[in-house]
Specification:
The protein is α+β, with helices and mostly antiparallel strands and 467 residues long. The protein has three domains: 110 residues, Avidin-like (Lipocalin), CATH 2.40.128.30; 94 residues, Lipocalin (Beta Barrel); 213 residues, Serine Threonine Protein Phosphatase 5, Tetratricopeptide repeat (Alpha Horseshoe). It is 41% helix and 25% strand. It has 13 helices and 16 strands. The chain has an eight-stranded antiparallel beta barrel with strand order 1-2-3-4-5-6-7-8. It has an eight-stranded antiparallel beta barrel with strand order 9-10-11-12-13-14-15-16. Helix 9 crosses helix 13. The relative contact order is 0.05.
């Protein structure tokens, strides 16, 4: 009698544990192996069916599915594949399963088993999947970070991404080669496979590690060790292909953060513009520091903060970034962000005059661009016109005219008091001047973010002002 309760408890525990295992079984797997990707495996409990893009179908049975091992048995049901079986074994890593598949098909392959590698992604319930971070948008053109030697250019790759499916293709003189795999959010490792029979040394199976949305690497086994080939994005990134936050959880490097800021600016998304500049500035990039100071000064995507604008611009200027130098010249001239100091304004303007033409001349642009077609004399005209446009922002603008008028009418009024009075009056002239100031500063930021169209616009506005 005393044993019965204990037995009841044991039976209950066994039943509970059986339920726990059953509940952990997958409902759907997206599968890849040496012969290609696109396998769709669906389960109801331990039984399931499999379908592949070329019409191959099979019955599946889960023999084991836990943290220590996965064993799934397959029996093909197609007329052309009858008798073919396989045993898939692997280990679960997060939502990823990877391991070996052993095929047997009596009367084929010399009656010997064939072993291939396989991987699969565990598909989640929609409510769970929606709570996970989105995977990076990797679509674009990438290039291996290798030195060009003996006239050979480092290989380029095109990445296409549809949902969880990733396709990576490259070309050589013999044709195009592609690998496909499944990329799940939160999993930095992608197992890729190709249907090609490579004769040029390329691997049929390829593992790709996602370092961040702009850099990936592939470990290649070599003797006596392992070679890591890094590939970087060369097509412009998009503002939304990775999340921007103060902690930079996406690990976006400063250079690519500035490029995303440019895309945000072009798309008129000021908050993400400021966010990406701040991300680059926090990494100590001088250009990002100066540009973020500009965003704070003009109140683009963030609340205006002249003191913070001065601090960030100073960081960039101390690293010889010419936009930071210009910002300090303007701040010391206007007294917005630091006490007005004409002498310091002139000193920083002199540094700007030395560094600005030098960098503008050295900037690399694609062959055939607007800048590339100019003669050296024409480029000097552009430099002078751009310099004149920068001068407009320091002094002589409509806003400065209103402030100067207040100070002439009230000789005892300081510049700060005059600015406050102009703002309080809120006249139509003040609003027009404010809009003009914002537009002018935005044009400068456009030019700083690159692109010959923006540079052309700066020259045009400068020439209109001079007329």
């Amino acid at each position: 009698m005393r044993i019965r309760p204990v037995g009841g408890i044991l039976v209950s525990l066994a039943f509970c544990c059986t339920l726990a295992v059953a509940q952990s079984l997958p409902a759907k797997l997206s599968e890849c192996e040496t012969y290609g990707c696109g396998g769709e495996w669906k389960f109801s409990g331990r039984k399931g069916t499999a379908h592949w893009p070329k019409g191959v179908e099979a019955e599946l049975t889960i023999e084991r599915f836990d943290k220590d091992q996965v064993i799934i048995r397959r029996r093909d049901t197609n007329t052309g594949n009858l008798g073919a079986t396989a045993v898939y074994t692997g280990i679960i890593h997060g939502r990823r399963i990877s391991g070996d598949a052993t095929y047997n098909w009596p009367g084929h392959w010399g009656n010997k088993p064939v072993v291939v590698q396989w991987s699969a992604t565990i598909e989640e319930d929609a409510s769970i999947a929606s709570s996970r971070p989105k995977p990076f948008a990797l679509a674009g053109i990438w290039q291996a970070d290798l030195k060009a030697e003996n006239g050979l250019v480092p290989p380029q790759y095109k990445i296409d991404q549809t949902g969880d499916t990733i396709k990576i293709c490259t070309k050589d003189g013999h044709g195009e080669y592609c690998w496909m795999g499944v990329y799940a959010a939160g999993d930095p490792l992608i197992h890729l496979s190709s249907e090609h029979d490579f004769t040029n040394g390329l691997p049929r199976l390829l593992d790709v590690v996602i370092e961040n949305p702009d850099r990936i690497h592939s470990p290649f086994k070599n003797v006596p060790g392992e070679v890591k080939v890094t590939t970087s994005r060369i097509s412009p990134p998009r503002v939304d292909d990775a999340a921007c936050d103060d902690a930079n959880t996406a690990k976006v490097e400063a250079y690519f953060a500035i490029l995303r800021a440019k895309d945000a600016f072009d798309r008129k998304d000021p908050s993400k513009f400021a966010c990406w500049l701040h991300s680059g500035a926090m990494q100590g990039n001088a250009r990002a520091e100066s540009l973020y100071g500009g965003a704070l000064y003009a109140g683009i995507g963030v609340a205006p903060d002249y003191q913070a604008a001065f601090q960030w611009a100073k960081k960039g200027a101390d690293s010889h970034d010419f936009f930071g130098e210009f910002m300090l010249a303007m701040i010391y001239q206007t007294g917005k962000g630091a006490p007005a100091d004409p002498q310091k304004s002139r000193e920083w303007l002199a540094k700007f005059d030395a560094d600005f033409p030098k960098e503008l001349q050295q900037q690399q642009r694609p062959p055939g661009s607007w800048w590339d077609r100019m003669s050296p004399e024409q480029r000097q005209v552009v430099i002078r016109a751009t310099r004149a446009f920068f001068d407009m922002q320091i002094g002589g603008g409509a806003m400065d005219g209103l402030v100067a008028e207040q100070m002439r009418n009230n000789p005892r009024m300081t510049r700060s008091q005059a600015e406050s009075q102009v703002e309080q009056n809120n006249s139509a002239a003040y609003r027009d001047a404010q809009e003009q100031q914002q537009s002018g500063f935005s044009t400068m930021l456009k030019m700083m973010l690159g692109g010959d169209e923006q540079l052309n616009e700066v020259v045009r506005k400068s020439q209109q002002r001079q007329k």
